[in-house]
Amino acid sequence: MTAPNTGSDRMLTRIGGLLRKAESTDNEHEAEAFLAAAQRLATRSSIDIAVARAHVAGRERRSTPTQRIIPIGEPGKKGLRTYVQLFVAIASANDVRCDVARTSTQVYAFGFDSDIDTCEALYASLLVQMVRASDHYIKSGQYRSATVDKIVIEKKWGRRVRRRVQAPVAAVTARLNFQMAFAARVGRRLAEVKSEVEAEAVTSETATGTALALRDKELELTDFYASTSEARGTWRGPQASAGHSAAARQAGDRAGKAARLGASPELGAARGQLTEGGQG
C-alpha cells in the first residue's frame, strides 16, 4: 500500500480520534454523532485534497487515482456478499469505485489513496460491529418467532402446482437479512453526511473553485476507472436466496441506525478480513 503523505497522516489521526470516542461511549446518540463527525472530516479532507490537486503547480508531485485490492474473506466463507455490500456502501460515500470478484473474496477499489485509506478504516470498524450485532440477534433467539415466505412445488391432479407457504426462519436466513439491512442503513447514513458536507462546500466563499475541483476529481477518477477496470458486468449486491425475513431486516436496520464503530482498528492498515464471528 502506498504510504500516505503528511496531510493524509494528520487526517487519518483525527479520524482515528473520533473512532475511539465512538468506541468508548455506550450512548447511541453520541456514537452516531461521532460517526457523522468522522465522515464529515473524511469528506471535507477529500474536498481539500481536491482543491489542492486542482491548483498544484511547479515541481509538486500530483496525486493520481490508484487501484487497491481489499481482501474480504476466504473462499467458501458464508455471508461474504454482505461484507462486500458494507464496503461498497462506505466506498460510495468516499469517492471510491469498486469492482467485486466473482467469489466475493475481494474488492478492487479505485480512487485516491487518502479516500481508500478512509474506506478501509471505516470498514474495519463497522464490519466488526455488524457481525457482533448479528451474532447477538441470532443468539437472542428473536428470529425464531418470525416466518418467511417460501414457494413449494407440489403435484396435484397430475400437474406441478406452485404454492406459497409460511415457514420458520432459519438462522442463516435471519443473519443474512440482518446484515443486508445493517449495511444498507450505514450506507444511507454516510451518504447523507457526504451530501450535506458537499452542499455546504459549494455554497461557501470558495464555491466555484471547490465545485470545479470536485468535478475535476470525479472526471479523473471516471477516466481512470474506465481505462483500468476489467469488470464485465455490474455487481448487484447480496441476494437472500433462502428467503426474505422482514423481522430480521428491521432488526438489522435498527442496529445500523445506532451503529458505533468498534474494535479500535489501526488506521491505514488493511483490515479487510474478519477473524471472529460466524455466518451460520
Write up this protein.
This protein is of the alpha+beta class and 280 residues long. It has one domain (6-257). It contains seven helices and five strands, in the order H-H-E-H-E-E-H-E-E-H-H-H. The strands form two sheets. It has a three-stranded antiparallel beta sheet, with helices on both faces. Helix 2 packs across helix 5 (171-201), helix 3 (80-92) crosses helix 4 (113-140) and helix 4 (113-140) crosses helix 7. The longest helix is centred in the middle third of the chain and has 31 residues, at 171-201.
Provide a compact summary of the structure:
By secondary structure, the protein is of the alpha+beta class. It contains 7 helices and 5 strands. The strands form 2 sheets. The chain has a 3-stranded antiparallel beta sheet, sandwiched between helices.
Element layout with pairings:
Blueprint: H1 6-24, H2 28-54, E1 66-71, H3 80-92, E2 97-100, E3 106-111, H4 113-140, E4 147-156, E5 159-168, H5 171-201, H6 207-228, H7 246-257
Antiparallel strand pairs: 1-3, 2-3, 4-5
Helix pairs in contact: 1-2, 1-4, 2-5, 2-6, 3-4, 3-5, 4-5, 4-7, 5-7
